[in-house]
């Protein structure tokens, strides 16, 4: 009994220390996952705590459950609209990108760590997956506002590339133990894992949603049901031969995109549970590590970390995103946001549990790679986004939205606005009945409604509204982006009517005109250019100017910006990530320059070549025999 109490006391103390240090980390910008990992290292047998924990099987069990909870919550918070915007680029990164990273890092590991080829590829496989917890936290909680397509690509990739890395790791461990199977066996194994995992995830997510909506459970019991369903789907899929990690992510995705009873409370519960899972997993992995063993492999591991960050990840991202319309700066940012985390260390436990000869070397290498990734990439994501000019100006709209569950079909939200200084409300315009606030807070104090008839800039107002009326309310309290001078670099210098034709704009500004596009409206031109999936900030070059999607409402373009000069947003900061058309243009330009230089060299040699000597003069006596002979 006393030993049990000591274990509980130590575990709760570590959790409290992690939470308190995370509060300090937020103030100085330290990656939280690095803090949790450091707490485990300091408490471990090589740290000041001296706690001895050397049970990789238990660590893998706890870590797998924690990762299943994290993946379920990440699916629960991902909307299908994100997939419509970024499904193909994200899934190509989650499959082809993982394979490219595994090959590049594995090849380097063979020579740097002097491991057999199978174990070297295992090093590449365990560090090939980006960490969903780290990416979701830094993008959602870190306050980095980037374009939806880039954000969705990173979030979907981080949530969906774990199954691929897990499949590769399992296949390589089987190959190390029993030898490579036939291509048919390998192919059938992959197909079974992916297809069965996706199918059971769809079935499990739909069943979970139907049960929550129809069972009429006590509100406090619903979160327990979702948690147990998630773990049941994860474990059951693994037992049946599918990918449990893929299944639990798909189940969360399905359940999160239907109307769930008590959805607000469910999301709040799983958000807290995800935090607990992250803390437990990172602290536990820190306890499991033994830093005194790092000395023999620290230099090769640092070399692999540098290769992963600067070569393998950028190469994989460039190859996968080449067919899609990402700018060079966006590709650079996606390549940089490739944080490695608990998934890599968790997968590194698999060769240790399988008693492979190089299992401990693989785990130690993965541990060092994760620390370097969190230090270098985790600390610089914000500055990198600003340096690449990817920070999107804040959108004018509600600062807070709370879904309300009301009896029947009543669909209302509680929304909060901060009144914009140039909004109609701040200029004294009379508010329609549907937009009258229910609560006004001015300078931190509640103002009675009869005294707040005239709203002031900076007032925080709360009102109830159906979701379909929010665009109208935005215009009353949020102001127009056209009035903001700070947004010019991103949204352009002028505002154009999207119904204007290309021909009209070309005549007005003296731009080159393509006859095939002359009769198109600006709205149709942009939609055709981006395949109908436009989002704010999308750009099309037209001569020396750029047309920019400035405002949208219900997926329809409502205003177009015109940048008179290409801005820093489109100028590549790192001229490495080019699209095929740009690469072909550069190749042609280089070939033309080389051909011109070769022609210049030939002409120069021809000019320097000495002129041929004139024939010697012929005397009259020599001419006479020739005449006689003729």
Please write out the topology:
Blueprint: H1 2-28, H2 32-43, H3 56-76, H4 80-112, H5 117-126, H6 132-141, H7 148-160, H8 162-178, H9 183-214, H10 222-239, H11 244-256, H12 263-288, H13 298-321, H14 328-336, H15 342-353, H16 359-376, H17 381-387, E1 400-403, E2 413-418, E3 439-442, E4 445-447, E5 460-465, H18 470-477, H19 488-491, E6 494-496, H20 502-509, H21 522-529, E7 539-542, E8 545-553, E9 556-563, H22 580-608, H23 620-629
Antiparallel strand pairs: 1-2, 2-5, 3-4, 3-5, 6-9, 7-8, 8-9
Helix pairs in contact: 1-2, 1-12, 2-12, 3-10, 3-11, 3-12, 3-15, 4-5, 4-7, 4-8, 4-13, 5-8, 5-15, 5-16, 6-7, 8-15, 9-10, 9-11, 10-11, 10-12, 13-14, 13-16, 15-16
Summarize the structure.
This protein has 23 helices and nine strands. The chain has 630 residues and is of the alpha+beta class.
Please tag this protein with its features.
630 residues; alpha+beta; Alpha-Beta Plaits; Uridine Diphospho-n-acetylenolpyruvylglucosamine Reductase, domain 3; 23 helices; 59% helix; 7% strand; globular; transmembrane helix; ion transport
């Amino acid at each position: 009994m006393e030993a049990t109490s000591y274990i509980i006391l130590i575990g709760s103390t570590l959790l409290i220390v992690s939470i308190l240090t995370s509060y300090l980390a937020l103030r100085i910008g330290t990656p939280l996952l690095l803090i949790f990992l450091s707490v485990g290292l300091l408490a471990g047998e090589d740290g000041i705590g001296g706690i001895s924990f050397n049970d990789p099987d238990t660590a893998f069990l706890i870590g797998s459950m924690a990762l299943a909870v994290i993946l379920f919550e990440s699916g629960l918070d991902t909307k299908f609209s994100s997939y419509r915007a970024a499904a193909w680029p994200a899934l190509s990164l989650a499959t082809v990108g993982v394979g490219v990273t595994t090959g590049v890092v594995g090849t380097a590991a063979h020579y740097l760590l002097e491991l057999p080829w199978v174990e070297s590829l295992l090093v590449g496989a365990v560090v090939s997956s980006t960490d969903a917890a780290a990416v979701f936290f830094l993008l959602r909680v870190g306050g980095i506002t980037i374009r939806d397509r880039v954000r969705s690509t990173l979030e979907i990739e981080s949530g969906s590339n774990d199954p691929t890395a897990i499949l590769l790791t399992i296949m390589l461990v089987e190959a190390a133990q029993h030898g490579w199977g036939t291509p048919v066996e390998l192919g059938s194994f992959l197909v079974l894992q992916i297809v069965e995992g996706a199918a059971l995830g769809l079935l499990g997510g739909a069943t979970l949603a139907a049960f929550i909506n129809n069972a009429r459970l006590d509100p406090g019991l619903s979160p327990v049901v979702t948690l147990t369903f998630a773990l049941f789907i994860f474990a059951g899929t693994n037992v049946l031969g599918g990918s449990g990690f893929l299944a639990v992510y798909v189940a969360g995705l399905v359940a999160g995109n239907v109307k769930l009873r008590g959805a607000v409370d469910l999301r709040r519960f799983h958000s807290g549970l995800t935090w607990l899972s992250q803390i437990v997993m990172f602290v536990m992995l820190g306890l499991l590590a033994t830093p005194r063993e790092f000395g023999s492999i620290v230099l090769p591991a640092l070399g692999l970390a540098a290769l992963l960050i600067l070569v393998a990840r950028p190469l994989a991202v460039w190859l996968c995103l080449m067919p899609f319309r990402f700018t060079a700066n966006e590709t650079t940012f996606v390549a940089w946001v490739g944080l490695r985390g608990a998934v890599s260390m968790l997968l590194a436990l698999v060769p240790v549990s399988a008693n492979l000869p190089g299992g401990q070397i693989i785990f130690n290498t993965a541990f060092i790679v994760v620390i370097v990734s969190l230090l270098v990439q985790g600390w610089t994501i914000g500055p990198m986004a600003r340096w690449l000019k990817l920070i999107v100006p804040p959108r004018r709209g509600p600062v807070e939205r709370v879904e309300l569950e009301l009896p029947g079909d009543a669909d209302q939200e509680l929304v909060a606005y901060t009144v914009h200084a140039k909004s109609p409300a701040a200029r004294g315009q009379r508010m329609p009945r549907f937009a009258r606030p229910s609560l006004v807070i001015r300078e931190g104090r509640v103002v009675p409604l009869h005294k707040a008839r005239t709203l002031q800039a900076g007032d925080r107002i709360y009102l109830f509204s159906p979701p379909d009326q929010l665009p109208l309310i935005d215009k009353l309290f949020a102001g127009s982006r056209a009035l903001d001078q700070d947004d010019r670099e991103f949204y352009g210098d002028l505002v154009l009517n999207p119904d204007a034709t290309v021909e009209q704009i070309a005549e007005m500004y003296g731009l080159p005109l393509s006859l095939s596009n002359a009769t198109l409206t600006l709205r149709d031109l942009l939609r055709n250019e981006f395949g109908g999936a436009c989002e704010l900030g999308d750009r099309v070059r037209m001569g020396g100017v750029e047309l920019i999607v400035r405002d949208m409402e219900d997926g329809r373009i409502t205003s177009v910006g015109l940048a008179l000069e290409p801005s820093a947003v489109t100028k590549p900061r790192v001229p490495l990530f080019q699209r095929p058309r740009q690469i072909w243009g550069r190749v042609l330009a280089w070939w033309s320059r080389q051909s011109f230089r070769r022609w210049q060299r030939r002409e120069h040699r021809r000019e320097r070549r000495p002129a041929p000597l004139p024939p010697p003069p012929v005397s009259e006596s020599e001419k006479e025999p020739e005449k006689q002979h003729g």
